[in-house]
């Protein structure tokens, strides 16, 4: 897959703001210990990692973390009999940090995949994450899957969406086409910026994220079609940390029972997902 040949830097103001926020919320090095048992967590607190810019799940607005997962974290602070210690950081360092014990849990929309399940365990799914493409609204050359043949696609580096591009490649092959150049980005806002500028032809992301993008900028972007089979995001913990998974699933179940989960889904996603599986075994 081809690496980008042009810079991938966020605007200086955004980098500075996120750096300040991360510094304020970053834990002392002493807390970066191995992920512990639930008993250990009760003593020292739960170390939570969240993303800095993944709308509408987690993002920073007016210097404060907000979004679906961040609202759930506030509920978790009331539910848990221990302190919640949050770190906000770029996506690329989150799952590796959880698998090695630097963080106890990734409270973010981590898509459940076979590869990830080798080193991580997941909670119950929190939403639908079927992959779609998004294009520029004024791009008349793309009206369906077959039109993506040979065109340049943007996707986040290290993401499950990158790993499932072969599904799209198969769809294109059936139409007599082929997957074009793949450009990997550190974050999706960078990919969307390049899409708007015409540096890539389309971007692949989950339907929730794409709907949020189009709702925010309806004159710039348009939702395409699905480019994957069923997929679900969930929160991730280190492999074998069964007690913590059970605790977090208990919290999620309570949020669902009270109607709070559906309320937040409607607020941030525009719809609720009442038929999410309690457990999910991915095909890919």
TrEMBL record:
<protein>
    <submittedName>
        <fullName>Transporter substrate-binding domain-containing protein</fullName>
    </submittedName>
</protein>
<dbReference type="InterPro" id="IPR001638">
    <property type="entry name" value="Solute-binding_3/MltF_N"/>
</dbReference>
<feature type="domain" description="Ionotropic glutamate receptor C-terminal">
    <location>
        <begin position="45"/>
        <end position="271"/>
    </location>
</feature>
<keyword id="KW-0732">Signal</keyword>
<feature type="domain" description="Solute-binding protein family 3/N-terminal">
    <location>
        <begin position="45"/>
        <end position="272"/>
    </location>
</feature>
<dbReference type="InterPro" id="IPR006311">
    <property type="entry name" value="TAT_signal"/>
</dbReference>
<feature type="signal peptide">
    <location>
        <begin position="1"/>
        <end position="35"/>
    </location>
</feature>
<dbReference type="Pfam" id="PF00497">
    <property type="entry name" value="SBP_bac_3"/>
</dbReference>
<dbReference type="InterPro" id="IPR001320">
    <property type="entry name" value="Iontro_rcpt_C"/>
</dbReference>
């Amino acid at each position: 897959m081809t690496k980008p040949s042009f810079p991938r830097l966020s605007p200086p103001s955004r980098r500075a703001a996120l750096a300040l926020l991360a510094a304020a919320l970053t834990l002392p090095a002493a807390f970066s210990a191995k992920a512990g048992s639930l008993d250990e967590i009760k003593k020292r607190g739960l170390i939570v990692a969240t993303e800095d810019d993944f709308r509408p799940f987690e993002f920073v607005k007016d210097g404060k973390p907000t979004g679906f997962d961040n609202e759930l974290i506030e509920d978790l602070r009331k539910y848990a009999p221990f302190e919640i210690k949050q770190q906000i950081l770029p996506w690329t360092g989150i799952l590796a940090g959880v698998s090695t014990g630097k963080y106890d849990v990734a409270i973010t929309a981590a898509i459940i995949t076979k590869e990830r399940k080798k080193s991580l365990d997941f909670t119950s799914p929190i939403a639908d994450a079927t992959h779609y493409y998004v294009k520029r609204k004024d791009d008349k050359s793309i009206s369906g899957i077959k039109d993506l043949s040979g065109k340049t696609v943007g996707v986040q580096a290290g993401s499950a969406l990158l790993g499932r591009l072969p599904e799209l490649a198969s769809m294109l092959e059936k139409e007599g086409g082929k997957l074009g150049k793949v450009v990997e980005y550190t974050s999706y806002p960078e990919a969307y910026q390049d899409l708007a500028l015409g540096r890539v032809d389309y971007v692949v992301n989950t339907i929730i994220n794409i709907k949020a993008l189009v709702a925010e900028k309806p004159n710039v972007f348009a939702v395409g079609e699905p480019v994957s089979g069923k997929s679900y995001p969930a929160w991730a913990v280190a492999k074998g940390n069964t007690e913590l998974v059970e605790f977090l699933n208990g919290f999620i179940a309570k949020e669902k029972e009270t109607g709070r989960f559906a309320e937040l889904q409607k607020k941030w996603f525009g719809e609720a997902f009442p038929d999410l599986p309690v457990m999910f075994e991915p095909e890919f």
